[in-house]
Amino acid sequence: EWVLLLLLHHIAADGWSMGPLFRDLSTAYTARAEGHASPLGQLPAQYADFAVWQQQWFGAEEDPDSALARQVAYWRTALDGAPEELNLPLDRMRPAAPSNRGAWEEFALDAELHGALLQFARDANATPFMVVHAAVVALLSQLTGSSDIPIGTPVAGRPDESLDELVGFFVNQLPLRVKWDGDPTFRELVQLTRTTALAAYDHQDLPFERLVEIVNPHRSASHHPLFQVVLNFDGTERPPLTLPHLTAHIDEDLTDAGTAKVDLSFHLRERQAEDGTPAGIDGALEYAVDLFDPETVRRIGVRLSCLLRAAVGAPERRITDLDLLDAPELESVVRLWNDTGQEVDSRPLPALFEEQVRRTPQAIAVRGAVDTTYAQLNERANRLARHLRALGGGREDVVAVALPRSVDALAALLGVMKAGAVYLPVDPGLPAARITQLVQDTDAVAVLTLSGSAPLLEKALAARGHDGSPDGAEAVPSIVVIDDPRTEETIAARPGSDLTDDERGGRLTSSQLAYVIFTSGSTGTPKGVMVEHSGLAALAAAQIDRFQVDAASRVLQFASLSFDASVSEIAMALLSGASLVLRPDGMLPGPGLTELIARHEVTHATLPPAVLGVLDPAEHGTLRTLIAAGEALSEKTAGIWSDRRLINAYGPTETTVCATMSRPLTGTGQPGIGRPIWNTRVYVLDGGLRPVGVGMVGELYVSGAGLARGYVGRAAVTASRFVADPFSAEGARMYRTGDQVRWRADGQLEFVGRIDDQVKIRG
Ligand code: AMP
Ligand code: MG
Question: 558 CA to middle of ligand 2, Å?
């Protein structure tokens, strides 16, 4: 065995040259092996002849009629305002200094698709290259969200037959820029690639290096100028090598230099059967390993074949309607990764809590200056529930709870729900007018408050008939001042046993409302989100399981009661027999909180990343499970807690606190937001509500058990955010989160950012 190594600089030979070079080698070797001189003669033209001819033909750039001036003028116009860099779905940040290392992923188009492509090309009076170009453009448009797509393509650059047998560098790169308005059909896009290519071929002689000098785009070492994607269709024939007495083959591994000149190159080579019929197209994607993972590139190949199939099958379809996902990927993103069904006890919170009380009546429910057992908390809640019933509050009536964080506030939450009413937490620090507004917006029948705030609130509520409600017909809500000695006495005198359905005025069902919590209103006026008991039960079950909360756990109650995170802290603790440790109102992260966590040996805490970033793990040895929630978690903050069970939990109020959770994070890499929790489904959709594939940015929609009923008194907004779930057979709804996310290849979600409500995104 022998290896012949031919090492050539690209400046001396291009791909086309391999044909004449290997033919010459074969001819000369054969002659020499038989003892003759090489029969190869002089060619009609040499490279120098070509160079001289080209120089003359181009003429002077200053001469407006010269070929050179015309080509320069053409390219200046064609590339005017072209995007500097395509926003490709990169796996990694573009390094300032690229390594230029490259690798390959292969894909294939079958004979049937190949045949259909050729047929469509004939019908459209286009070449197969133009059809493939249109498909690549449509694909890149969907991947980048742009409708101005420049890509590069090589042309042989041998304008005369007399140059065919020459070894030399003739090849040129043409930037093909396709730009359009609106949403063309595939057939229209092919007409566009056709005119683009024909015009470019007419001006193909200007060498690329010269073109770059003339167009003078912003130069950066980090990306290729004018285009970062190349389409190479048909390529060059495999060079022939016939050496007598030897079996010779060209070792592709040796010819693959492991480099990538641009970010991504599509290579397609047509195959013909013996009888000349189309036998399929071999595809390969060469990619920069600095930027892409193999899996991402493999998927791009699959997407191109899906898109081509859809496009040649229905060329009148708009290009944004062309499917990019093959059946297995669609199955993954819609079904497989949403296979979260789990039997959970979905009874209303009071029933679940009362059962826990029966299991562990003497366990400590709330730890603080004085400890409160499950039985004590339950009795207080029952007395309050009876008191509310006596005031007339009942099924789905809203009761505002304007109390500081305290055992009383917890008893109030439970008591309101036990009465069959709906809990509305209100920050007692809000101005009386704002509280009045909340009460009015929700038609609350009662407000629980303390004597300190009562007089102002009473005044504000009494005044509302004059300036607020249009007819003044609604009843003024009862104000229950729970620290008023007479009220305390009345409540204390009521029985502490669990309420019967009769006392409640009917059975409490899971589809009844549990609470109303107002969103922060960062996107306009605050909206009251109505959450049902079924959602709360599903959330608690999922959290207790995932956070491993049990009777030995101590759960920090950190969140403000007017945020729904507090509901989740309370539910996970009180439905699992754990203890709640209340953060006193106003206690910020610092020595006080650290001391509280240590004194009560808190094991579980749900904290915003901003707080996780300032706590010192060394001072919080008892914390075993941390839940990061509420905003994006950085790799750095996650890294601080790498020796604990840290889970990133994501969710809007409208999906009952939490929609997705990560696995315990490992401490390296950008933390994801994980997968949908039990009985929850998530969809990442484009502007036309079509699922996008792995790696593509889309808007997150959530469907399933946690979906809120809607916004109090805001039917139109509710209808615009809670829309029909097109992937559910049972006519379910899904919530449009306004968050941008993308799937990772392993089915985990990555948070990308909030969608500015003003900006409509696609793809
Ligand atoms: P809210 O309804 O007030 O709880 O706000 C929910 C919003 O907070 C979501 O729509 C996200 O924009 C953001 N958010 C919540 N949790 C996370 C998280 N783990 N990572 C990133 N953003 C989050
Ligand atoms: Mg929240």
Answer: 13
